[in-house]
Design a protein that fits this description.
By secondary structure, the chain is α+β, with helices and mostly antiparallel strands. The protein has 2 domains: 119 residues, Aminotransferase class 4, branched-chain amino acid transferase, N-terminal domain (D-amino Acid Aminotransferase, Chain A, domain 1), CATH 3.30.470.10; 151 residues, D-amino Acid Aminotransferase, Chain A, domain 2 (Alpha-Beta Barrel). The chain is built from 8 helices and 15 strands. Strands 7, 8, 9, 10, 11, 12, 13, 14 and 15 form a 9-stranded mixed beta sheet that branches. Strands 2-1-6-5-3-4 form a 6-stranded antiparallel beta sheet. The protein is globular. The two termini are 25 Å apart. The model has no long low-confidence stretch (mean pLDDT 97). The chain binds pyridoxal-5'-phosphate. Pyridoxal-5'-phosphate binds next to helix 6. It comes from Thalassotalea mangrovi. Keywords: Aminotransferase, Folate biosynthesis, Pyridoxal phosphate, Transferase. Belongs to the class-IV pyridoxal-phosphate-dependent aminotransferase family. It catalyses: 4-amino-4-deoxychorismate = 4-aminobenzoate + pyruvate + H(+).
Length: 282
């Protein structure tokens, strides 16, 4: 299991960072998760563009160019083929680096700490499974469009969901749907596909963008607008999506059954379109 850490390729067990790293002390950094199918990173340019955007928003310059990132990612994939197989999930993290002491104010520009590691990706060809979600208040900050490594609220929310037997926490701010704790949310109502628009309240998912493209390509207009939680609970179909979960149907939210309680036709159609799009690239 090999990771990239600050220019070196080392065994995961030997990859160590300083206690003074600002990522460790302040969660001062950003990350990406990139799915890899049959050895190829999927939508990698889109993920890198989002990384550049997150870095820009926290005033960090990218330690590498796009082509350098691509080379690092490719090498991590290749080095882990024998450990994780050719469907992998690449985790990439950049922090503001190691300062001389623990102090909120950064003492000046520091060399960023860069980690790229791989794990096994299990989603893919397997059959769709209906999942259950719980609706919780979105207690996160107001810059959810930044893919920040500060995930305390997200982890508290999803752990609360899991402890109560749910697969995901779907979040709302004052009754308006935002997104899942680690996913975006779509719903289908009277044949119309809806999802909240990109804003500071959600992470603009790479999978979300792709699903919107795939819907349009198959003649389904996606309406990106505010969604009230009442509409969500009354929807015919709901799915969540992310790079590692692809399209996951939601068949119940708390004690409310969604639609017929079975995976809906549009959900199946878009999940199939996503698999077809992936296999065309392979
Ligand atoms: N929203 C949040 C809060 C996430 O953490 C994620 C990914 O994990 C997503 C949405 C989905 O983004 P993507 O499709 O780029 O994986």
């Amino acid at each position: 299991d090999t990771v990239f850490l600050n220019g070196d390729y080392v065994a995961k067990a030997n990859a160590k960072i300083s206690v003074l790293d600002r990522g460790f002390l302040f969660a001062d950094g950003v990350y990406e998760v990139i799915p890899v199918y049959r050895g190829k990173p999927f939508r990698v340019k889109e993920h890198l563009n989002r990384l550049f955007d997150s870095l820009r928003q926290i005033n960090l310059s990218s330690p590498y160019s796009e082509s350098q990132w691509l080379e690092i990612i490719t090498r991590v994939i290749v080095k882990n083929l024998n450990v994780h197989g050719d469907n992998q999930s690449i985790y990439l993290q950049v922090t503001r680096g190691i300062d001389s002491d623990r102090q909120h104010t950064v003492s000046g520009p520091l060399p960023a700490t860069v980690l790229v590691m791989a794990s096994k990706l299990t989603t893919g060809e397997s059959t769709l499974k209906g999942e259950k979600a719980t609706l919780l208040e979105d207690i996160r900050w107001l810059h959810c469009d930044i893919k920040s490594i500060a995930l305390l609220a997200n982890t508290l929310l999803v752990n609360q969901a899991k402890a109560n037997g749910f697969d995901e926490a779907i979040l709302h701010r004052q009754q308006w749907l935002t997104e899942g704790a680690s996913s975006n949310v779509f719903l289908v109502n009277n044949g119309q596909v809806l999802t909240p628009p990109k804003s500071q309240y959600i992470l603009g998912g790479i999978t979300r963008d792709l699903i919107i493209e795939l819907c349009q390509a198959s003649g389904l207009e996606v309406c990106q607008r505010r969604v009230h939680i009442k509409e969500l609970l009354d929807a015919d179909e709901v799915w969540i999506c992310s790079s590692t979960r692809e399209i996951s149907p939601i068949i119940a939210i708390d004690d409310k059954i969604i639609g017929s309680g079975r995976i809906g036709a549009t959900t199946r159609r878009m999940a199939a379109a996503l698999q077809a799009f992936k296999s065309e690239l392979l």
